[in-house]
# Entry
Amino acid sequence: MSARPAGGTRYAEPGRDRIAIIGAGHVGAATAYALMLRALFQEIVLIDNDAKRAAAEAQDIADANALARPARIWAGDYTDAAAATIAVITAGAATHGTETRLSVAARSAMIVGECVTELSAAGFNGIIVVASNPVDLMAMIAFDCAGLPAGRIIGTGTLLDSSRLRTLLAGELDVASGSVDALVLGEHGDSEVALMSTIRVGGLLLADFSNAGCELDQRALAQTVRDAGYAIVSGKGYTSYGIATAIVRICEAIVRDERIILPVSTSVDGVFGLSGVYMSMPCILGAAGVERRLIPPMSAEEAAALEASGATLRAAYDNLRRDRPR
Ligand code: NAD
# Structure
């Protein structure tokens, strides 16, 4: 990875090396496909318990090679992951019907724990991006099992939720979503918190941007964002493209050493009196992973809701550890 020059942003050439994706299901396959189109890595290895599925997905994506961006894509094992810069964990128990993310935690914890232990045993020493749900708890499991610095374990967290909120607001206000700054923080799940007090549209507060901004039903918007994943699952059985794009965005920030600020799930030790908790806060993302965690200004009500979100995650994690065979 090339060094960052002092005093300015430089987009280093993409690393063009290897990424490992553990879990070649809907999310893993969509991620591999999006990564191939983005040409961020020269080599993409898919690892799955179901070797036949991984081989088929790898072949299907590799078939596009000559028409898109050449990359070597294959179904491998953990020895192939040892040399990877980034390992993305998408293996886990998917939610079905009305199952909440927290309700599948125990099943996913077993899977994620096994994957990270295998990665470590193979000598992997890079950055782990966790997407398996409940993603904040799975990032905590990964941190416990990997023995890597906290900044090198990153959960996709509320990057997707924040993108959904920005898109919804952009539609209501008739501006490009790129001009809307809006954050959803805390758990990626039912206790997440949309920071309505800090929304900016082209740098302006909502109220200063337009009357339409004042009339928005903020509670309903936050609820729509919270329920978005469930709505998609009820229609097609799973979600994949949105989360795959969020994963690719995180990988790109790392590989290009961007130092972009994105809301991702990270260790929040010391914030709101929490310890041993991963949840989403805005983070500077670069070659070392999470390089700094930021605490944005927020209303007292939002701060209390975030503290409660962290406490919910901590309690869920304590339950998980108590019930988890060691
Ligand atoms: P899926 O069932 O299609 O794929 C999961 C894959 O994991 C399967 O191919 C399975 O064989 C594999 N697997 C299971 N145990 C394994 C192990 N021990 N080692 C290697 N591979 C193993 O599910 P999906 O729809 O791709 O979802 C995957 C995960 O991503 C779920 O936990 C889901 O909840 C989560 N997800 C997260 C977000 C988010 O916003 N963070 C969004 C969508 C899905």
In short: Residues 1-15 have pLDDT under 50 and may be disordered. The pocket of nicotinamide-adenine-dinucleotide is lined by residues 22-28, 48-50, 53, 90-95, 108, 111, 114-115, 131-133, 135, 156, 160, 188, 238-239, 243 (CB under 6 Å).
